[in-house]
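Can anyone check this?
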Amino acid sequence: MVFSSLVFLSVFLPAVFLLYTVIPSLKVRNILLILASLAFYAYGEPVYVLLMLFSSVLNYLCARWVEHNPQKKSKAALVTAIVVNLGILAVFKYTGMFVTTFNSLTGLQVPVPEIALPIGISFFTFQALSYVIDVYRGAVEVQKNYLNILLYITFFPQLIAGPIVKYRDINRQITDRHQDIDKIARGLRRFICGLAKKVFIANTMGQVADVLFAQDVSTLALPSAWLGAAAYLFQIYYDFSGYSDMAIGLGLMFGFEFKENFMYPYGAVSIQDFWRRWHISLSTWFKEYLYFPLGGNRKGKARTALNRLIVFFCTGLWHGANWTFVLWGLWHGLFLLLEEYVPVMRRLPKVLGHIYTMLVVILGFVLFRADTISYGFAYIGRMFAGFDFSPSALSVALTQLTPWFLVMLVVAIIGCAPIRPLADKIRANVYGGAELSKAWKGVQAVLYVLAAAGLVWCMLRLSSGAYNPFIYFRF
């Protein structure tokens, strides 16, 4: 089940939210959220919900093992958690990739096992592992109530697409939080914004990117190649940030406050700046649990460079079981090293820095989107193949430039700007910094519910074929 599905929007979310709201006991509310989260996951993964339960039990027991044993045995518990968690991830996510690579290197024909990938396994594995590591480090107290750990790992808003939530950031919220009209209103607003990002912008951009990346690369002209790259640039941002917005909004509706995961990354002026803004929960996870344990920047320039390349190798691999993702990660790691060790890269004017950053990002995402490394480099080659604006060269691109796509493209470009801080400033000026009355907050919540209902109605119309902008708005 995904957030943008009609089952989730029309049945699951209203039912869970209403039940949660009328239940007075926080303990019972937590049990409701656990049961709802397991049902949410089992809807799409009826068998692999057992794997998630195993992961929760394993990490709960390893953390208790750390608590009750001397230092050496505690280290054994930590190693057990790391090996088993990463082993599960390797088996279910990377077995096919490893066997295929082995066959290509050796010329053998070892059968490639067909193992279905459990949804969200990378997210809940990293969350669970961070909990055990933090207990070992003494950064957080061990949780003795298994149900609290189960809620932390399985909570449905951040289960399948993040953000990666650290236990220490929400451990107190699990046992002490409140739901009020202000949080509900803010949560609904954030959820609606994320849903609109996904349904209208990301899906529109994705349709165009799918068409252009499916072309024989030798037939692509420069305009079509750049259009496909730009469409995917916006698709991946609005997909990822849209799901993060929906997760943050859903969390607020149930009283949880998650940290921001995207902070306008396409406004970055360097690759280092980009990674301070892009998928923040993932980049900080690798920083805290891999980069620092490797030594960070404390062991000389050569070791620092190696540590960063290792981190970005793993960052790319985390995103998917294909060497294109690894190459994407190393691509970013390379430019981070250039910025670190080539002084002129740090002195670029902001405008030039932004242009350079976006060029690196968009080319990197071409490699990320490509099915193979060779296709990715060939596609990039077509982006710089010379200016050919003949009708035959433009034909593929022109078929995708519907008015609906152009409108969404404009919206996508505007949406990359820091609109939310600007809106907050305007709101503060309008209300003079005063708190809104409870009555007005209630009106806001009702308006957001009506807006969500309107969005669901629009999706129903689109799915039924009664209204399809991709048909009615073509040149």
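Reply from J.R.: I decoded it. The radius of gyration is 24 Å.
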